Amino acid sequence: MYIEDTIAALSTPYGTGGIGVIRISGGQAFDTANKIFRSSKTIEEIHSHTVTYGKIVDPKLNDVVDEVLLLKMCKPNTFTREDVIEIHCHGGIVVVNRVLELIFKNGVRPAQPGEFTKRAFLNGRIDLSQAEAIIDLINSKTVESSKAAVSHLEGRLSLRLKSIREVLVGLLAHIEVTVDYPEHDIEEITGENVLENLIKIKEELITLAGTFERGKILREGIDIVIAGKPNVGKSSLLNQLSGSTKAIVTDIPGTTRDIIEEYVNIKGIPAKIIDTAGIRSTEDVVETIGVNRAYEAIESADLIIAVLSADTGVTEEDIQILKMIKNKKSLILINKTDLVEKNSISKIKQQLSECDIVLEASVIKDVGIEELETAISGLFIKGDISSNNEVLLTNARHKYLVDRAINDIEQALNSFETGMPLDMVTIDIKSCADSIGEITGESIDEAVLHNIFSRFCIGK
Ligand code: GDP
Ligand code: ZN
User: Pairing with 93, which of 43, 314, 315, 394 sits 20 to 30 Å away (CA)?
Assistant: First the structure.
């Protein structure tokens, strides 16, 4: 068991919530609680995993700070596998800070970001990819992205990787015996055996690496820019997609002077949608700044929705915009179809025959929005993301290590082809096993650990 000093932090977000939960973890947790908690029972008398009502009292001044509920949890059945006290305070931030201060005066130090999770990892309760899944879960923006994190948290990625690593370690042991003790009784491992196993593992790792793009989209989301000349319905579209009226909609061309952003959920994909100022040359200085920022936003976007208006047809301004986004992933939306006849829509479509995806909509009538969302999600994710249970690689560190492991295997396969002796191949196999071990934390150094856990917020 890994033993350290006792730590505490506020585990709920800072601010004026209804309650604030303070968590204390470590060998001194119960002693400290005893000093500042008054109720009909002492901490020793309270049963593990039960809640007790009482008061937090400054022992020096005998001053009641807050009425609280206290949860006592004895190791090892706790998140950190240490003794844990949770204090559910009533108060706003001032009260929570006073309680924390009392705790820190009584033998406990403030937790660093991610330190509770780090202890859970170091005490063997979770492995590293699970710890990272906790960060992902805290940061996840849609149900689907949180599902991917939960699947990691349940250890599905770890299980998969552990079984691969076991095969590698088994191979290593077998090769060693074959090479070092030629006269042993164990069945000899042949080059063919090793080769077969390595090819299989390589395929498995490549499949896993292939899920990263999708995992990354779920985790980080995509940036979408809505582009188009003034008054085509860009802001209305943003409002429709986000279900709010944050963007200013007017019938005066050029009212969206700056960039407006909104986070929305498009069929499970977290998306940041940016409504740009109408793109056109203008004398108005404020508007010019907006237009320049629109160009920048288009450059860095993952997808551009170019909005045209059916009632004006394709104008010179539209053509300029289409030219500008020619090399970007984009789709074209012909809006305001409610204002025109069917055959004029067909005419517009003919003019746009060189564009890949052309959709129709009447944004204010909520027509064509569903189709638009389906098209967007189809551009980034093949198939239904929520229905399959495969393990997705969502973390850049994991992707890097899986790629390294694939590289090692390829190295090993190369050595085979050039007729190297078996024991030379073991170097690459070992390195592959190490790469995989770094994902789950079976082989990892302190610096990497520090880096990972510092990405948490305090109290997690
Ligand atoms: P933006 O300048 O491109 O952001 O355009 P807005 O979203 O501000 O819309 C300009 C005007 O067009 C507003 O009066 C909207 O109500 C109107 N509008 C937007 N979408 C539609 C549509 O589908 N049909 C019709 N008839 N009017 C629309
Ligand atoms: Zn607008």
Answer: 43
